[in-house]
Amino acid sequence: MFLWKGTLLPNNNHLPVQLRLLQVKCVTNNSRVVGLLAQLEKINTESAESDTGRHVTSKILHLVQSQEKTRREMTAKGSTAVDVLLSTLENTKDLQTTLNILSILVELVSAGGGRRGSFLVAKGGSQILLQLLVNASKESPPHEELVVQVHSVLAKIGPKDKKFGVKARINGALNITLNLVKQNLQNHRLVLPCLQLLRVYSANSVNSVTLGKNGVVELMFKIIGPFSKKNSGLMKVALDTLAALLKSKTNARRAVDRGYVQVLLTIYVDWHRHDNRHRNMLIRKGILQSLKSVTNIKLGRKAFITANGMKILYNTSQLPVMPVSGPVAQLYSLPPEVDDVVDESDDNDDIDLEPENEIENEDDLDQNFKNDDIETDINKLKPQQVPGRTIDELKMYEHLFPELVDDFQDYDLISKEPKPFAFDGKVRGPIVVPTAGEEASGNVGSLRKGAVLKEKVSPKREEDEKKPASVGIAREDVKDNDRALQQPSDDQNKTFPSASGLNSDIVKALDRITLQNIPTQTAPGLTAGMKKDCGLPLTVLTCTKACPHMATYGNVLFEGRTVQLGKLCCTGVETEDDEDTESNSSVEQASVEVPDGPTLHDPDLYVELVKNTKSVPEYSEVAYPDYFGHIQPPFKEPILERPYGVQRTKIAQDIERLIHQSDIIDRVVYDLDNPNYTIPEEGDILKFNSKFESGNLRKVIQIRKNEYDLILNSDINSNHYHQWFYFEVSGMRPGVAYRFNIINCEKSNSQFNYGMQPLMYSVQEALNARPWWIRVGTDICYYKNHFSRSSVAAGGQKGKSYYTITFTVNFPHKDDVCYFAYHYPYTYSTLQMHLQKLESAHNPQQIYFRKDVLCETLSGNSCPLVTITAVPESNYYEHICQFRSRPYVFLSARVHPGETNASWVMKGTLEYLMSNNPTAQSLRESYIFKIVPMLNPDGVINGNHRCSLSGEDLNRQWQSPNPDLHPTIYHAKGLLQYLAAVKRLPLVYCDYHGHSRKKNVFMYGCSIKETVWHTNDNATSSDVVEDMGYRTLPKILSHIAPAFCMSSCSFVVEKSKESTARVVVWREIGVQRSYTMESTLCGCDQGKYKGLQIGTRELEEMGAKFCVGLLRLKRLTSSLEYNLPSSLLDFENDLIESDCKVTSPTTYVMDEDEPRFLEEVDYSAESNDELDIELAENAGDYEPSAQEEVLSDSELSRTFLH
Question: What is the per-residue pLDDT for 1000?
Fold first, then answer.
């Protein structure tokens, strides 16, 4: 019953007179509607006279119509007003009372939108109103006003009731509404709400078929017709209803059989011709929606093409000038339907949600729908450490933690008396200092049983590393039958050609550097230049045309296989005209920031490592960007502003292919599926290649003279995940605009629509001392195309389409060799090279560095495990104890091969940890770092986007990893389980990822309180007590890292992420600070880099800043400073600011993260291709404490910790 029974006021004599008067007025208004509802309830109970009911409901209607406050009051949480109204509606026999209540309900749901509609549904309104409709239909004739009102309310609340279609069918309401339309076609006032309700009925596929059998399709074509200024509102609703009905294949076939496709086209042309002022755009859109629905079946598409539909729609879509104002401009400036995700690195990319039913008010989507993926079970959310494996099973990892038992007797440490030292916590048992010979050796057995020991470097190998490495020694002990995928026998002795057919003047000298036959004393300029790499500009990098000692094209190397570089445009550095020379000099004048410390790139070492890398296609070439290396260009690369109309133009050009088929060349110019395919010899055709590590390009089709369709490989042992690309192009001419269309992408949206550009690497530019990847391309769009995905490739769903990335490039040099990539490539061999260089250059007296092999992958490649910390001050007992008691930090990266930015961030972390920076030394003295820099080597090597060789997303296997199918995850989790078993739980776990749809760098963490808070269950949320320490590190990073954005962070735990590293390490291992750190593939829209595309400098800087953040976290989480000098802490901020110098941002401003472009295609039918929808909008909203922003370090430690 009602909570507000009386009108007594509290004693408020102490209040000011004005406030007392205001309160009296408010209570009077409140009491008025409360009193009326109380009277109405009494009437229901006592079955009073109908006149009283009419009088009371009339007064309530007046209040509802005149006061929004009354409407809010009646639908407020806890109010029983709607219950009283529905009860009266169900029991009254008085027509006027019924009409009054229906009018009240119409007012409530019309003004309040979806929330009030859902409120009415929750009170049982759907069933009561449907029954009222059935009862009203029994009268002959039915009361028109009653029928209109009932249909109006049902049309509003129907979309909010998930079972509305079933209820309507069971009650027999479908035929009632349909017959009303048939019998009253000329009564537009009655037909309009009936059509609106038919549209809601049709959202249920069974209802749609049932209505179709009863002639609803034919009925709709009696209502719609040629252009008319009358009844345009009725026409629009009829078309919307027809479009919903035609989504049923049965109804679509019925429409085709009756020739309605031609009718729809004729009607569309008529409306287009007469609607000169664009006042009826929604009607034209409704016709197009109906055509779209009917062409979802093959029969419909055939009828559409037969009726010349392609040409008709193409001709009518040519809008020369877009109006600045008016209905058209308003239509194109509708609010954006943001298709965003919370944790895209952990997404199930192959799972698409069914298209949502059309909802009149899209702003009123149920909150419950948005939170469907949030875990709401508190018991499941609470971290519960699960042993997983017994301590005996985990002993296999002891040898990977020698730092816990090493006594450093073999180290030449400076022996000195230790300073007074107190442990931060209790010593867990006696510390035994064994001799070096007692160290556990581990078992190198099978892949299932153990991880292999530290790699031993043979004296011969050490000798080889000191000498200039030869660039082509045979891979040893490699047999074809050991491969996961065998080469055809007739191709085993073939040379794998790179893209060929260059100008004969170009294909000389270094046209083909076979990796075996280059004498170490030759090409000193080239060798010296390459050895320096990061010390560029490479002004010494020159070569001559005549190089008789170089191998010629196609030399066969070891065991019938080649390991070779692709073509090198080596006529020497191309002679440039005056304009080019001027621009080059300006670039050379700009200084290139080179990080301190050792140069990590060594081309000869890279080639040696490539030969030991095992790939499924047995790659035999080395891409030049990986050989030359990459340095960040010295100029800024702003986020691209896309001019209006580009996407419209591109789609129109695609349609022209079907209309003017005679203009299309349609010739295959590259095909990995056909090993016998020969490259065309014509001089004006581009040559393509992707047969190198991390390469991905499957097929190329020449469409027009300078336009090519490109098809990507799916991930191995999978039939989807087409996104990552990395390929070589040659044979180009300068000054020609080449268009590339990658036509089989799968994600429903991309940052390519919001300013991101693909990357290009020019070999000519590298020879001109500019060895860098740069952002290129104009007219860049990402849109849905007409190529359909098979149900197998679409996760069992039919009707899904592929998406196209299109971009246009003008090449600066003739017959150059250029490479294109989705993001900055970082291969497995590059990682191995960097680790070897770091190991050989570090100071063993200062830095404890160890590189082990965690396990072998399915393909037989080793997965490196790196340990970094500071060598103890001496081998005194106290110093050894301090060394062993350091907390662990566990880092991992590159579980998804296509997220190459994660490797660049990891490179920044590794270089910083190995640097001589005093802050880095303090960091090493504070933590022991266990790092798995590449969790998916096989995927990276073979050019996958997301999966390993098993065809599975490894970041979905952390709950129950299989040691045979997912060895890297199994053993990485084993390391963490071992640390938990020996009571050395890591302080921080962080998995580095990349994000393709959001800007900036941000983190995902795990919080029970915030997860519950997002379910809108505030009562439950307030009961949860949780340590807020998980927010400390992201807060720190938001203050010290320019690219980091705290507002993009989320700490919500989703059901779909329960098997990811972040959630499993938090829930099962018990690491509170378990994170995924996401780095954008595009750029930043806030902070220092606002308006700039992200580069490797910024990514590496983020890795370094993450380290600095850990040092600050240490100060907050420890009562002991580990004897850090106060002077260091005082100038730490200065060190932070000076470590990574990055150019200042431009003045380019983006108003929002992903604004809707005016010509953007509507993706609403397929936009929900991820499980976690719209959570990101609220991801950063939760703030546990208002004072958190202004607390000092010491205050933060007291607030966040313990």
Answer: 96
pLDDT above 80: residue 209: yes
pLDDT band at 109 (very low <50, low <70, confident <90, very high): confident
**Contact at 8 Å (CB) between 937 and 1130?**
no
Query: What is the pTM assigned to this prediction?
Result: 0.70
Q: Which helix (H) or strand (E) holds 343?
A: none
Terminal Cα distance for the chain, rounded = 46
Average pLDDT over residues 704-724: 93
**Nearest Cα residue to 121 out of 168, 156, 70:** 156
Provide the percentage of residues in the chain whose pLDDT is more than 70. 67
- 3-class secondary structure, 1041: coil
From 517, 521, 523, 511, select the one nearest 473 (Cα to Cα): 517
Q: What is the residue whose two structure tokens read 């393909």?
A: 859
Q: Which residues fall within 8 angstroms of residue 599, CB to CB, at 6 or more apart? A: 531, 532, 533, 534, 535, 837
Q: What would the pLDDT profile of 439-498 be if each residue is shown by its tens digit?
A: 333 333 333 333 333 343 343 434 444 333 333 333 333 333 343 333 333 433 333 333
- For residue 301, report the phi and psi dihedrals to the nearest 5 degrees: -65, -40
Residue 1008 pLDDT greater than 70, yes or no? yes
Rounded to whole angstroms, the Cα distance separating 799 from 296 reads 7
Q: Cα–Cα distance between 1141 and 658 in angstroms, integer?
A: 52
Residue in 1054, 1078, 1159, 1170 annotated catalytic:
1078
Asked which of 611-625, 668-682, 736-750 is least confident by mean pLDDT, the reply is 668-682
Distance CA 963, CA 1152 (A): 45
The residue-averaged pLDDT of 523-550 equals 33
**Within 629-749, where are the H helices?**
646-659
Helix axes 188-201, 144-157, angle to 10 degrees: 30
Rounded Cα distance, 436 and 751, in Å = 54
Distances (CA, A) of 436 to 407, 409, 410, 440, 799: 7, 8, 8, 9, 65
How far apart (Å, rounded) are the C-alpha atoms in residues 476 and 464?
16
Task: Specify whether the CB–CB gap between 633 and 774 falls below 8 A.
Answer: yes
- Of 984, 961, 965, the C-alpha closest to 973 is 961
Using only C-alpha atoms, the chain has a radius of gyration, in whole angstroms, of 35
Please give the full DSSP string across 423-483, using - where no structure is assigned.
-SS---S------GGGS-------TTT-PPPPPPPPHHHHHHHHSPPPS-PPPTT--GGGS
Q: Would residue 1068 show up in a list of annotated catalytic residues for this protein?
A: no
| Residue entry with tokens 């006149």 | 51
